Amino acid sequence: MTRGETTYYYQTNYRGDVTSLTDSTGAVVATNEYDAFGNLLKETGTVENPYRYAGYRYDDATGLYYLQSRYYNPDTGRFLTRDGFGGFSNEPLGLNKYGYVFNNPVIKIDPDGHWYFVVPWVVRGAIWGYRTYRIYRAGRTVMKFAKGGKQRVRDSGLAHLSNKEISRQAKNKSLSKKERARYQKEEKARTQRNKQKRKK
């Protein structure tokens, strides 16, 4: 936005509220704070700015926001004129022709006064939440099948030996303690595997 010879830049939050204006150096020259329905709670600075809550154009004379087709009153959280859209019977709040974003301005905006949409960060959050849940479920499945997994780890260096040979070496006192432990671990892994096969 340009005023005189100075250019200002809008800074917005997740919903598109203009929370501050900065100059070309990045210095904050004006700030705005709003409640959930767009009432101005706090304002600093003297730069005249027509865009405010959710990026809507604000009329200082009436205290209303213009949403391209209808005026919205933040004091009541309602539009001044009826919505031409009929609504959906399964969404009772949508049947109110004067209502603003189904009374849920925290996650919804209505840029044209006819149809709301969910703020993008909410959609992204839902997608990430679903993906996280899927990863969690997949991890639980892996953990379910890996229960006692350390005991079932097979030694690929001993794969060529028979079960009988593994058992014999596991009891062989002439081997070092470390080498005997290796055979004992392999014996245990094979025994566990055989027990599972017998259960099936």
Description:
This protein folds into three domains: 2-115, no CATH class; 118-147; 148-200, no CATH class. α2 packs across α3 (177-199). The longest helix has 26 residues, at 120-145. A hairpin with a 7-residue loop joins β11 and β12 (117-118). It is built from three helices and twelve strands; from the N terminus they run ββββββββββββααα. The strands form four sheets. It has a four-stranded antiparallel β-sheet, with no helix packed on it. Strands 7-8-9-10 form a four-stranded antiparallel β-sheet, with no helix packed on it. The protein has a two-stranded antiparallel sheet with strand order 1-2. It has helices at 120-145, 163-170, 177-199, and strands at 2-3, 6-7, 9-12, 18-22, 28-34, 40-44, 57-59, 64-66, 71-73, 78-79, 108-109, 117-118. It is elongated, with a radius of gyration of 34 Å. It is of the alpha+beta class. Residues 160-200 are annotated as: Disordered. This is Teneurin-like YD-shell domain-containing protein. Keywords: Repeat. Residues 2-106 form the Teneurin-like YD-shell domain. Residues 191-200 have a biased composition (Basic residues).
Describe this structure in a few short sentences.
This is Teneurin-like YD-shell domain-containing protein. This protein has helices at 120-145, 163-170, 177-199, and strands at 2-3, 6-7, 9-12, 18-22, 28-34, 40-44, 57-59, 64-66, 71-73, 78-79, 108-109, 117-118.
Point out poorly predicted stretches. Answer: none
Order of helices and strands: EEEEEEEEEEEEHHH
Helical/strand content category: alpha+beta
Question: Which range best describes the helical content: under 10%, 10-25%, 25-40%, 40-55%, 55-70% or over 70%?
Answer: 25-40%
Summed over residues and divided by their number, the pLDDT gives a mean of 82
Tally of helical segments: 3
Largest sheet: 4 strands, antiparallel
Strand order of the largest sheet: 3-4-5-6
Portion in strands: 15-25%
What is the count of β-strands?
12
Q: How far from one another are the termini?
A: 73 Å
Shape: elongated
